[in-house]
Specification:
This protein is α/β, with parallel strands linked by helices. The protein has 14 helices and 8 strands. A 6-stranded parallel beta sheet has the order 1-8-5-4-2-3, with helices on both faces. A two-stranded antiparallel sheet has the order 6-7. A hairpin with a 4-residue loop joins strand 6 and strand 7. The two termini are 36 Å apart. Bound molecules: 5,6-dihydroxy-NADP and zinc ion (ZN). The site of zinc ion has 5 residues, from helix 6.
């Protein structure tokens, strides 16, 4: 096992009726800005519950944070916070609202330069506005990590940061709030969480049996519970299991002391930036390109995964079977697994590969995926 440091300060408040107790977790006298998406929280009653719970607070609202949240929109909230001297941010919605709110939290006092530097330079903020979350979509793990992904419309870029200043103080997770998710978002969430596990597990062995089994626990849970929520969207237990699994998939406990990949995500973000596909839709295509391209380097873990998750006997053909079985699982959920199915062709492949190269990074757990390899992976994902 490799050396590691692990710290996660997020207070998780999980279960039925937890939104009603929100006021207990926000400092008395705070001037709160509630950040929201396009309206789903009105339709499912979460908005009403938050308003009631925070009736004793000075509460303002900022609406309109989009899926694949935009820097341009988030900056409007930053200006509002500066103008109104907001002292607490409450994100209410999916991962996009929370990611944008993490940015807002860091950007309000980042006045010396363009806060986009939080992404381009991995900059730290001189001071943050404290942040809490009510998460309504299990997928990103944003509720228990310090990552944020934002898109800048003017440059068609989608960039991520991982910044310890961006942990929410708390995250409220009521599985009932996910009953209203459209099927497409439920599928996206299962696939996104599944691929998060892959990025931390499907590398090479470093003798980390605990982390491997933590990852496999999340795989099993998604495989067993995913079809249940699709069949019965109001199955509380299945929704709760998916929600907690998605949090575990990216709170980085399973990443302690093990190598990580993230090439599927890096390539996928570029596809979203240039073609507008949902985040998970890109992952479900690129993952298999990465696995096929890297199957020798990933062989030991692919064989272990195939055996433990899908019951595939190790031996000749086991790697291919593990890949095929995973693709069949995604398709059984109703997720497409090839870029051409979304009308994406080779037109931007060169641009995607050059952009990643221009940021000076090589991808993968061996840092051996450069421009040429990205092009090969994209062609395998077509
Ligand atoms: O905008 P509203 O009206 O709220 O509707 C949203 C949105 O249209 C809707 N929704 C959310 N909760 C709902 C609901 N509809 C009905 N009932 C509910 N309970 O779902 C749509 C998608 O929401 P969004 O927040 O965009 O989805 P998700 O949580 O999957 O977030 C995706 C974003 O997170 C980034 C992705 O790149 C993408 O930008 N990621 C963030 C990560 C992180 N912070 O750690 C890691 C991930 O790998 C990922 O990159
Ligand atoms: Zn993801």
């Amino acid at each position: 096992m490799n050396n590691f440091i692990f710290q996660n300060p997020v207070k998780v408040i999980f279960g039925r009726g937890t939104i009603g107790a929100l006021a207990e977790h926000i400092p008395a006298g705070a001037k709160v800005l509630m950040t929201c998406g396009g309206g789903s929280i009105r339709a499912n009653g979460v908005y009403g519950q938050v308003k009631e719970a925070l009736s004793g607070f000075d509460l303002q609202e900022f609406w309109g944070i989009e899926p694949n949240p935009r820097y341009e929109t988030a900056m409007k909230a930053v200006e509002l916070c500066r103008r109104e001297k907001i002292t607490f941010l409450l994100s209410v919605g999916g991962g996009s609202v929370l990611d944008a709110t993490k940015f807002i939290s860091l950007a309000v006092h980042y006045t010396a330069a363009d806060p986009w530097e939080l992404y381009t330079k991995g900059a730290l903020s001189p001071q943050t506005v404290p942040l809490g979350a009510v998460i309504t979509l299990p997928a990103t793990g944003s509720e228990m990590n310090c990552n944020s992904v934002l898109s800048r419309e003017s440059t068609a870029e989608k960039l991520a940061f991982s910044n310890p200043q961006a942990y929410p103080l708390f995250s409220v997770m009521d599985p009932e709030s996910t009953f209203t998710l459209p099927e497409r978002q439920t599928i996206n969430g299962i696939v996104d969480a599944f691929v998060h596990v892959c990025e931390q597990y499907m590398t090479y062995p470093v003798n980390s049996p605990l982390q491997d089994r933590q990852a496999e626990a999340v795989y099993h849970t998604l495989v067993e519970e995913g079809p249940k929520v699709l069949k019965n969207p109001r199955d509380y237990d299945a929704r709760a299991n998916i929600m907690w699994a998605a949090t575990h998939a990216l709170n980085f406990i399973m990443a302690c002391g093990v190598p990580e990949d993230w090439s599927t995500h890096m390539i996928g973000h570029e596809i979203t930036a240039l073609h507008g596909l949902d985040h998970a839709q890109t992952l479900a295509c690129v993952l298999f390109g990465v696995w096929k391209h890297q199957k020798q380097a990933k062989e030991a873990k692919l064989v272990q995964y195939g055996q433990r998750i899908w019951g595939i006997t190790p031996g000749p053909g086991a790697v291919e079977k593990a890949i095929d079985r995973t693709e069949a699982f995604f398709r059984s959920l109703g997720m497409k697994t090839r870029l051409h199915e979304y009308g994406v062709g080779t037109e931007n492949f060169e641009k995607i590969a050059s952009r990643i190269e221009s940021r000076g990074m090589k991808l993968g757990e061996h840092a051996n995926i450069g421009k040429k390899e990205i092009l090969e992976i994209l062609n395998l994902s077509l």
